[in-house]
């Protein structure tokens, strides 16, 4: 037999490694909620985690450099009246974060560069339109200020965040609880998985179903789905015998899976993270102590097992760093922020290479923070491809795209009557102006103290 036993791949030897104890974030009371979201979101500036809070919902935002033991009195973002279920950093501004909560609202927050010095209770924008708790959030990958939220009312809403209004409301497509929502690479399609055992591909602006697949997995446990390269779809779910499975689908022919593999009999839902630059998908099970990774290619069996990172402690949630936040000179191709009971541990995925030079084959141009289309234009039908950046000299943060709230049009609540709204707009404008003035004063004070320290 002359058949090659081992498939050649530059990612065959990818290995995961937890960082040293002093680079972890310790003494954080991670939320005890049983919701299946990541509970953690990261970007090149901050790591944010949902924490236990009395009398409402809160999450903590730490600058990446602030590792070690976190003081119990460290300020949190605590404007929600119910537990926070999902948080998501804006891909176009590293200081803007969205949170969804049991109190049925979505809030948009702005973080100061050095992190919080006092508890943050007032959001930039409050979005109200769901009648039950909001469990899933996802920012549009290329359009500025477009946010998607999915609630336990089986409704998906697309928001124009700068205007504070719901533009598209999909309330008839799903007959049961929505498990996951995901944008494709340029944000022209949405993929949802639902408790009614149906996978749906939707047109986000029309709110219409393009195609759907019933029972991608036979079991009744939650299904997760993400877009991978070439418009294909990867799903994780369970068989009738409660074995965990991973499958790959071609939406142009949903009748049969391109591949369906059984993994193990654990009960945790597998959260998939896909890296379009390398074609690697990472599967992190809630309650597992391992991260499996596979390479998705064009050749059968399409989803090729690479390896598995295992540790002693199980994970309560997982944050995934965007490519521009990685250390490319160390051949770091992915970094996860793994939540334990009381801490957050970064886990680094590396391709072993002897050379110190930039490895172009590992780091092709990747999605940068610049949006390619504004919210109003996108809702009017204009599409934008992702704007790519090179990581050759490492990512250097430029001035983020300013978050502007269109004051005169900002509807803070969906139920405000037209009359009361007119009365409120002047007050809102005044509050916003005061906020801007405060920010300017803070900036100038900081600059003065810097100059004094130099003297």
TrEMBL record:
Signal peptide, first to last residue: none
Keyword field: Coiled coil, Repeat, WD repeat
Single GO MF annotation: actin filament binding
WD repeats by residue range: 77-119, 127-169, 171-212
One Pfam family, short name: WD40_4
Coiled coil: 427-454
GO terms under biological process: actin filament organization; cell migration
Keyword Magnesium: no
Similarity comment: Belongs to the WD repeat coronin family.
Record PANTHER family: CORONIN, CORONIN-1A
Name recorded for this polypeptide: Coronin
């Amino acid at each position: 037999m002359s058949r090659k036993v081992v498939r050649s791949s530059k990612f065959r030897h990818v290995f995961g490694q937890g960082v040293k104890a002093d680079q972890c974030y310790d003494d954080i009371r991670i939320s005890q909620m049983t919701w299946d979201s990541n509970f953690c979101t990261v970007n090149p500036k901050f790591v944010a985690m949902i924490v236990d809070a009395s009398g409402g919902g809160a999450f903590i935002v730490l600058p990446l450099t602030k590792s070690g033991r976190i003081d119990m009195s460290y300020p949190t973002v605590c404007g929600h009246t119910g537990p926070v279920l999902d948080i998501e950093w804006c891909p176009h501004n590293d200081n803007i974060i969205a949170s969804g909560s049991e109190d049925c609202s979505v809030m948009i927050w702005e973080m100061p560069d050095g992190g919080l010095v006092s508890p943050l209770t007032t959001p930039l924008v409050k979005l109200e339109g769901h009648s039950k708790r909001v469990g899933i959030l996802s920012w549009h990958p290329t359009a500025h200020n477009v946010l998607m939220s999915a609630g336990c009312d089986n409704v998906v809403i697309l928001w124009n965040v700068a205007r504070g209004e719901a533009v598209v409301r999909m309330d008839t497509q799903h007959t049961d609880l929505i498990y996951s929502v995901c944008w494709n690479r340029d944000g022209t399609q949405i993929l949802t998985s639902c408790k009614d055992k149906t996978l749906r591909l939707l047109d986000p602006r029309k709110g219409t179903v393009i195609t759907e697949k019933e029972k991608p997995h036979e079991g009744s446990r939650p299904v997760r789905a993400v877009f991978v390269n070439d418009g294909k779809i990867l799903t994780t779910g369970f068989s009738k015998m409660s074995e965990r499975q991973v499958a790959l689908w071609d939406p142009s022919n949903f009748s049969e899976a391109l591949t369906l593999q059984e993994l193990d009999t654990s009960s945790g839902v597998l959260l998939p993270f896909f890296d379009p630059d390398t074609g690697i998908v990472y599967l992190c099970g809630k309650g597992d102590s391992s991260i499996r990774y596979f390479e998705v290619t064009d050749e059968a069996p399409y989803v090729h097992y690479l390896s598995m990172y295992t540790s002693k402690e199980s994970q309560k949630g997982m944050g995934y760093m965007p490519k521009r936040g990685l250390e490319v000179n160390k051949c770091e191709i992915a970094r996860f922020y793994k939540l334990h009971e009381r801490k957050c541990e970064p886990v680094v995925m590396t391709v072993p290479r002897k050379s110190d030079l930039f490895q172009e084959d590992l780091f092709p141009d990747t999605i940068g923070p610049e949006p390619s289309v504004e919210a109003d234009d996108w809702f009017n039908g204009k599409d934008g491809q992702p704007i790519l950046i090179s990581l050759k000299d490492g990512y250097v943060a430029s001035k983020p795209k300013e978050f502007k709230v269109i004051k005169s049009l900002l509807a803070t609540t969906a139920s405000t009557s037209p009359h009361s709204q007119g009365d409120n707009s002047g007050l809102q404008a005044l509050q916003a102006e005061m906020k801007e003035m405060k920010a300017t004063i803070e900036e100038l004070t900081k600059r003065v103290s810097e100059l004094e320290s130099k003297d």
